[in-house]
Amino acid sequence: MIRNKPSFSNSWDPMKKTGPVCVIMLVAFLTTNLFAGEIHCLKRNNVAIFFAPSLETAAEEVAELYPGVKSQLEKALGWDLNLTPSVLLFKNTEKFHEIAESPLTVAFAVPAKNLIAIDLTRINIRPFTLENTLKHELCHLLLHHHIKEPVLPRWLDEGVCQWLSDGIGDIIMDQKHSFLNKAALSRRFIPLKALESSFPLRDRPLTLAYEESKSFVTYMTSQFGRQGILNILELMKEGYDTDTAVLRALNTTTRDLEIKWHDSLKSRITWFMHVSTHLYDILFALMGLLSLLAFIRLLIKKRTLKDDEMDETDFVA
Question: Which of 36, 101, 161, 190 is the most exposed place for a label (fewest CB within 10 A)?
Answer without folding.
Answer: 36
